[in-house]
Amino acid sequence: MVDWLSMDLWLVSHHSTNQPINLLRMTSIRLITQPTPALLDGLCQLLIDSVNGGASVGFLAPLSHDKALHYWQGVFAALGPDLVLWVAENDEQVLGSVQLSLCQKENGQHRAEVQKLFVHSNARGGGIASKLMQTLEAYALQANRSLLVLDTEAGSNAEKLYQRLQYQRVGEIPNYAKSSDSMLRATAYYYKLLAKR
Question: Which residues contact 24 (CB under 8 A, 6 or more apart)?
């Protein structure tokens, strides 16, 4: 179990002028079931920031607001037993999000896929991604999911995060997807076995 107060104290003592101080303490994570106009706008800005900042998440830069809105409308239409969404917020400003796709196949109801972990570029380095993932993993355990899988761009900062969170690298596929700059990049595959606490 992560001691968030100790992490906050570490952040305060190790911050640089480019990192937010105590951002984690001021950030709330909530499960989202219904969109509001403000939430949709914040999620669109988050996705645009991520894609235009180089994230390889299925889109190419520059990402338009219309494409981002269409994507999030599709996510909200799919929310339910198969797909869950969390948002990290600070004073109603969207700082991050993550999704969990729960396998519904009869022989796969012990697993789920981590999808679309985003943290706004202005909020990175403050522990938000780790807090989102901790929330997701706790939910997965409650839903009797003992195996999580994910893929991410090989060599990316996201890959380093998943390794710190004890996800195990299985391998990679070269030239799997275009990154936001239209270059073909390898995708790395990871898994984590969750243990009941």
Answer: 4, 7, 8, 11, 126, 127, 128, 131
Which element (helix H / strand E) includes 174?
strand 168-178
73 contacts: CB under 8 Å, gap ≥ 6: 35, 40
Tens-place pLDDT, residues 91-146: 889 999 999 999 999 999 999 999 999 999 999 999 999 999 999 999 999 999 99
Q: What are phi and psi of 155, to 5 degrees?
A: 85, 0
Token pair 């729960």 in the structure block, residue:
102
Q: Using the 8-state DSSP alphabet, how is residue 79 labeled?
A: -
- What is the crossing angle of helices 65-78 and 37-52, to 10°? 120
Query: pTM value?
Result: 0.86
Instruction: Give, for 86, the enclosing helix (H) or strand (E).
Output: strand 83-90
Rounded Cα–Cα distance for residues 176 and 185 (Å): 6
Distance CA 187, CA 197 (A): 31
Q: What are the structural domains, with CATH classification, of the chain?
A: 27-193 (3.40.630.30)
Q: 3-class DSSP state for residue 130?
A: helix
Q: Report yes or no: 118 and 85 within 8 Å, Cβ to Cβ.
A: no
